[in-house]
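Work package 3, deliverable 3.1, input record:
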Amino acid sequence: MFNIERWQEIFETIRKNKLRTFLTGLSVASGIFILVILLGVGQGMQNGIAEEFEGDASNSIWVWTRPTSVEYKGMNPGRFFSMTNEDFDFIHKTNEDVIEYESSRVRIWNATISYKKESGSYRIEGVFPGFQFIENQSMVSGRFINQNDIDEKGKIVTLGRKVKEALFKNGEDPIGKYVKLNDIPFKVVGVYTDKGGEREEEQVSIPSTTAQQVFNRGQNINNLSYTLKPEKDFETAVAKSEEFVASITRYLKNKHVIAPTDDRAIGIGNSLEQAKRFYSLIFMIKAFFWWVGVCTIIAGVVGVSNIMLIIVKERTKEIGIRKAIGALPSSIIGMILHEAIFVTAIAGFTGLIFGLILLEIVGPMVKTDFISNPSVNFNIAITTVFILIIAGALAGFFPAWRAAKIKPIVALRDE
Amino acid sequence: MIEIKDLHKSYQMGINSLHVLKGINFNVNEGELVSIMGSSGSGKSTLLNILGMLDEADSGSYFLDNIPIKNLNEKIAARYRNKFLGFIFQSFNLINYKNALDNVAMPLYYQGIKRKERTDKALHYLEKVGLADWATHLPNELSGGQKQRVAIARALASEPKVLLADEPTGALDTKTSYEVMDLIQGINDEGKTILIVTHEEDIAHMTKRIVNLKDGLIIDDGIVEQVRANSYV
């Protein structure tokens, strides 16, 4: 390998046979190039989908109620029922160890919210402090509702960014001002944004207890929201969340006298389940790209093998001459392999570098919802280059071995 | 230098076996210039290939410089070829992407000689065949006679004990043939043992001994009066 004479011989051969070298190199370089691009796009898709999901905390669970659908204990189907503070407290008590953030929601649809002369129709959410984290809302200014507000049933409100923009026209700071929610004045304590989209910014939040009192909801709540504590891996997280969902469903059905077979009455959204579906989608996409990539590599290997076969065929006479003047079979094999490995290595790394450069330049320009920041794991790319080099060497070895076994008299025979 | 006893060789042609050499007994001393003659199919090229270790005999013995040439594996055959023999072919068999100098230097590469020394030696032998000025030319830039002279230089470069020439003038016109023969005679004058396979009478008479082959047997083997090639030029 470090025989300088051998290297000189190889370089000379390569220099004198540019087209042959170029063709070998091209098939290797393009194989690696395509693989790098494919892996990059695959990664980009994964990143893109992951970003789409960032809107809400990805292990959140929502519970809401619907009319019953099964007749049970003498009660007709179609009965409306509502969850209460008692349910919220009970679930809090019994699942304290798995719950990370929690909030009940009291919803007031289409409330009129006004400030001075500006007014609009928005949704009011009566919530707990944990709601901020469940919805991934971040404060632009001021603060969110805190436990104190809940306990004191304070008439304070946090505005969604859209609401703030609509009501406070000329950049006026809303903090400390009073807005009217259905003609009841609330003090603005904060403004938030939500990556989940504009719809989530077209609402205001007030303490859950305040909402129940001010809007005559008694103990009723519309909705429960939770996020669960992170688990060490995805599968455990999914299992825990399913267990949690099952336990609260059981409790609610029992409490509100709902048939165990009634699947309609309690609606549950589990983002982890959705995430699981998306993760398997991502997995499928990645698997697909890998599959295409592996096929590309195989095509590359076949290409290299083909060219090596042709090269050896073309060089049969030369090999015969070399053997007649005293070349050992091992030196013939060594020569061909050395050349093959050298060319595939250089070409492989060239393809790799070009692929990486292209991803680096074009990557940040790609701005669609589903591809973001395409990039490639460098180790994987390097590994594939080595696979291709080894494959090239193997592909070269057998023809070289055969060539070295040809008797010089046969190789030298005039056609 | 060369001792051959009862050499047999047959080729398998489908179901028929073709008996090419039917018991050759043949000695060559150091410094001889021998031509092997015979019509095509007489077995002369086969004999030369066996002598050149490019092919192996079925039976019989072959000693080259008192070394038995027998049961050679590829490795040893290659080393012996490199050390003992120089080949000159009818179709020159130069490597066409290497220039004259590199072609001549090639046996030296396989002897493991360093590049600098290789180049010096190769240039020396190119000078000897009168082609020093053509050292950097590729084979396809040379005439047939020049190519054969490069091939002779290459055969000489490894300083072999025996030169084996298979129809060295077969692809050349008469004038060029004589020039090449003149060169070969000159090399023989310096004491090199040379075997030439030919079917041309005039070429054969430029050697010192003619061996006639027919149907795989030596029918005639005699010393002849050598005709100097330069008397024609």
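Chain A has a mean pLDDT of 84.
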